[in-house]
Design a protein that fits this description.
By secondary structure, the protein is an alpha/beta fold. The chain is built from 4 helices and 8 strands; from the N terminus they run αβαβββαββββα. The protein has 2 domains: 1-24 and 146-166; 25-141, Immunoglobulin-like (Sandwich). The strands form 2 sheets. The chain has a 5-stranded mixed beta sheet. Helix 1 runs antiparallel to helix 4 (147-165). It starts with a helix and ends with a helix. It is a lipid-anchor; GPI-anchor.
Length: 166
Amino acid sequence: MATSKANLVFLVIIFIASLKHFTVTSFKYEVGNTNGWVVPASNDSKVYNKWASDNRFKIGDTIYFKYQKDSVMLVTEDEYKQCNTTQPIFFGNNGNTEFSFDRSGSYYFISGVSGHCEKGQKMIVRVLVDDGTTSSGHSGSTSKHGLSAVVFVLQLVVLSIGSLLF
């Protein structure tokens, strides 16, 4: 009996130690934080670019646009500068649009509603080159999802089982 308990303790320790090596590989960011994707106040037309520059985006990260009676478009740099909505690369209008970054570089987002882009509802996101390191520099306003929550729950389950056995 003591040998089986010792073996179980050893396996639990090995399991928990192995979980420490997992890292979160992507993050989900909510554009505009609690305000969502809306036309900014007249004196705050740079709000989305400020928000984007405060975050460090990597390949695999996702941005989430929450809005009502609006849309979001991914466009070229020229279309961004001109607020041209005629040929989007990506278009979402369901009120809960997610977009995942699949390459490094600049991404240009604008509202598809007439006049909104001109009022500042547009944003440039720069995605960093993946250098193999873990994500850092994320602001407290990001919503983190991924393997870390799973690892935490698994650790709790294993520790609970271990405490029941002893």
